[in-house]
Amino acid sequence: MSLTLAAVGAVLAALLQSTLVPYLAVGGARPDLMVIVLAIITVVVGVDHGLAVAFVGGLTIDILAFRPLGSTAFVLLVAVGAAAGLGRLVPRRGGLSTIAAVLVTSLLSPLLFLVLYGALRGPIPVDEPFASIGPDAMYNTVIAFLAGPLAVYAHARYFEKDRIDW
Q1: What is the pLDDT of residues 4-36, one digit of tens each?
Q2: Which among 73, 98, 61 is positioned nearest to 83, based on CA atoms?
Q3: DSSP assignments along the chain, one per residue
Q4: Which string of DSSP letters, residue by residue, matches 72-98?
Q5: Which pLDDT score, from 0 to 100, does residue 131 have?
Q6: What are the residue ranges spanned by the domains of the chain?
Q7: Could you give the CA distance from residue 17 to residue 57 in angstroms, rounded to a whole number?
Q8: Measured between alpha carbons, how far is 93 from 107 in angstroms, rounded to an integer?
Q9: Measured between alpha carbons, how far is residue 144 from residues 21, 105, 126, 156 in Å?
């Protein structure tokens, strides 16, 4: 997988995040496609691809949602670091690492964005941040439960070269 393909996928995920996600709400919980995509790509493909997805996708979301330019990209870059660290701790076999990475980044990203946006533009009125982030994180984790193992299998099947290990 090339970095160009990762950047194009990030733009596509950002466009879907801005247009389709509001219609996918279940009980007030909305998925965060960018967090899901970047966590899975970081764990399965590598950190460099995750950084490309985070930067390009974050800037695209900032432009589409009229946010301070670079704020979402910064939050997603920190999320890539968390996903990469977690991907090294949990074995990649079976997609468990992708599910754990999505759960952690789904909890970390909105909290960091609330702090960053509050510093740049003023605080966002949220009564209980953990109560509002929890359902979204669970929704993201359910999606990762379905997509993560498929991504691990597809990457192992089509992109990794078989080699003889002496």
Answers
A1: 888 888 899 999 988 888 888 888 888 999 999
A2: 98
A3: --HHHHHHHHHHHHHHHHHTGGGG-BTTB---HHHHHHHHHHHHT-HHHHHHHHHHHHHHHHHHHTPPTTHHHHHHHHHHHHHHHHHHHS--GGGHHHHHHHHHHHHHHHHHHHHHHHHHT-----S-HHHHHHHHHHHHHHHHHHHHHHHHHHHHHHTSPP----
A4: HHHHHHHHHHHHHHHHHHS--GGGHHH
A5: 82
A6: 3-158
A7: 10
A8: 23
A9: 15, 12, 26, 17
Mean pLDDT of 84-112: 86
**How is domain 3-158 classified at the CATH fold level?**
Arp2/3 complex 21 kDa subunit ARPC3 (1.10.1760)
* Amino acid occupying residue 80: V
Residues in the chain: 166
